[in-house]
Design brief:
By secondary structure, this protein is mostly beta strands. It has one helix spanning 11-17; strands spanning 23-24, 36-39, 43-51, 54-59, 63-67.
Length: 72
Protein backbone atom coordinates (compact mmCIF):
# COMPACT_ATOMS: atom_id res chain seq x y z
CA UNK A 1 0.00 0.00 0.00
CA UNK A 2 1.51 3.32 -1.06
CA UNK A 3 1.52 6.24 1.33
CA UNK A 4 0.02 9.44 0.13
CA UNK A 5 2.39 12.36 0.39
CA UNK A 6 0.93 15.38 2.10
CA UNK A 7 2.56 18.76 2.15
CA UNK A 8 3.28 20.10 5.62
CA UNK A 9 1.67 23.46 6.17
CA UNK A 10 4.18 26.06 7.26
CA UNK A 11 3.67 29.07 9.52
CA UNK A 12 4.01 31.45 6.55
CA UNK A 13 1.37 29.45 4.61
CA UNK A 14 -1.09 29.87 7.47
CA UNK A 15 -0.45 33.60 7.76
CA UNK A 16 -1.04 34.05 4.01
CA UNK A 17 -4.41 32.24 4.32
CA UNK A 18 -5.55 34.46 7.18
CA UNK A 19 -8.57 36.60 6.37
CA UNK A 20 -9.58 39.48 8.58
CA UNK A 21 -8.45 40.13 12.12
CA UNK A 22 -7.41 37.57 14.72
CA UNK A 23 -9.63 37.34 17.80
CA UNK A 24 -8.03 38.47 21.04
CA UNK A 25 -7.43 35.41 23.24
CA UNK A 26 -9.40 35.46 26.47
CA UNK A 27 -9.84 32.42 28.72
CA UNK A 28 -13.54 33.30 29.09
CA UNK A 29 -14.18 33.06 25.33
CA UNK A 30 -14.84 30.03 23.09
CA UNK A 31 -12.84 29.34 19.95
CA UNK A 32 -13.10 26.94 17.03
CA UNK A 33 -10.70 24.88 14.97
CA UNK A 34 -9.33 27.05 12.16
CA UNK A 35 -9.67 30.33 14.06
CA UNK A 36 -6.77 32.75 14.39
CA UNK A 37 -6.11 34.30 17.78
CA UNK A 38 -3.88 37.01 19.12
CA UNK A 39 -2.26 36.19 22.46
CA UNK A 40 -0.70 38.96 24.57
CA UNK A 41 2.44 36.92 25.32
CA UNK A 42 2.77 34.41 22.44
CA UNK A 43 1.55 36.54 19.52
CA UNK A 44 -0.51 35.36 16.56
CA UNK A 45 -1.76 31.78 16.71
CA UNK A 46 -3.76 29.29 14.64
CA UNK A 47 -6.13 26.88 16.42
CA UNK A 48 -5.36 23.38 15.15
CA UNK A 49 -7.72 21.37 17.34
CA UNK A 50 -10.22 21.84 20.14
CA UNK A 51 -11.20 19.31 22.77
CA UNK A 52 -13.36 20.20 25.72
CA UNK A 53 -12.03 23.28 27.45
CA UNK A 54 -8.62 23.05 25.74
CA UNK A 55 -7.36 24.36 22.41
CA UNK A 56 -4.16 23.36 20.65
CA UNK A 57 -2.69 26.51 19.12
CA UNK A 58 0.19 26.74 16.64
CA UNK A 59 2.25 29.84 17.32
CA UNK A 60 5.29 30.85 15.28
CA UNK A 61 7.68 29.24 17.76
CA UNK A 62 5.73 26.09 18.80
CA UNK A 63 2.38 24.47 19.55
CA UNK A 64 0.84 25.37 22.90
CA UNK A 65 -2.17 24.08 24.81
CA UNK A 66 -4.48 26.83 26.10
CA UNK A 67 -7.73 26.84 28.07
CA UNK A 68 -11.02 28.14 26.76
CA UNK A 69 -14.60 28.47 27.93
CA UNK A 70 -16.83 25.58 26.94
CA UNK A 71 -20.24 26.52 25.57
CA UNK A 72 -22.94 23.85 25.44
Amino acid sequence: MARRMTKKVTWSDLIKKMKGEAAQYNIAESFYEGDYISHSKFGLGYIQTTFGNKIEVLFEDKVRLLVQRVVF
